[in-house]
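DM between two lab members

TW: hey, do you still have the Tyrosine recombinase XerD entry open?
JB: yeah, one sec
JB: this one, 392 aa:
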Amino acid sequence: MKTALIAPRPLDTLDLPDELDGRTGVNRATGRRQISADDDLAAVRAWLARVADTPTTFENYRKEAERLLLWSLVQPGKPLSSLTHEDLLAYQRFLADPQPRGRWVAGGRKFPREDPRWRPFHGPLATSSQRQAMVILNALFSWLVGAGYLAGNPLSLSRQRARRAAPRITRFLERDLWQEVKVHIDSLPRETDRERERERYWRARWLFTLLYLGGLRISEVSGNTMGRFFCRRDADGHGRWWLDVPGKGDRERLVPASAEMMVELGRYRRERGLPVLPAPHEDTPLVLPLGKSMKPLTRAALHTIVKGIFAGAAGKLRLRGDEYVARAAQLERASAHWPRHSAGSHMADGDVDLRLIRDNLGHASLTTTSLYLHADDDQRHRETEQKHRIAW
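TW: and the structure you got?
JB:
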């Protein structure tokens, strides 16, 4: 039996019909309950009450619980506490295309929850948003089982991927998210008479160039100087720039300074009133504070700059609608180490030889005492420059 509920209403104003309130749901537990809820709506509200003091989490949890509860009433016409594993599979397919559109989708606008035109969806959910929705709902069902309200979690039967060792690189940005970061940086004020705003833009652009093109750790940025850039000629007489990086565990490595990186260095130095190219052994820090100071920024200060950029890009993503929330949350989790991991991942995706990636990121010790560059180093420089670009 399907309810006559034509226009779904928000969770806070919803009033369930007796036959769908879940008091007789087939998945109700028969033992002692840890919550006082007698019906599905009260049980969901008890789950949400745990996160009421964290607005973003509360809104995301409420949204997913609300969508499922309304769908269960209208589509299969059964209470939440009677949903089966098969029902949840159907619901996940529904998320990819909520139909009928007039009932579920708010026509491209975000109406207030008290507006009768409010709808729980703004359009189909992307695959990542579908996955995020099911993660949240799995947490809901697991909690209701633990609270003694439900007998079992229908989502626990979902196919589990074969156990395997965790991937070595997990904290990285896919190319579309990396593009969002670059777009945000390029949106910062630069054509302005305010000198500090211009400096902030060029500093962010240069810092992210270093972290991504150079694959540098934040400690390698804060502890290095521009005087460690140097140029050597290869066997064909072609001049190639490199950055000598004192790295982790007192190891040093040579990072290819591509033409693109050197252009960005020159732009940053020119903005700071410095010659385009650094002098040998120049002690200017790789990244400078705003203003006249020439002191190196601390690791904490660099972390703050990077996190601020990620937060700004995430904020712009959230403005696009609910389907971007999961992607924005990923950006908000990102730290200053993520551009390094992103660089390695993107180089691998671009068919850069894994041995060259290893050497670029300093995953193996390098001989840096030689006064000349070996042929293998020249190949590494050429391939890095051709296949690993930031493309501002």
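TW: got it. Confidence is low (pLDDT under 50) at residues 1-6, 161-168, 365-375. The first strand starts at residue 229 and ends at 233.
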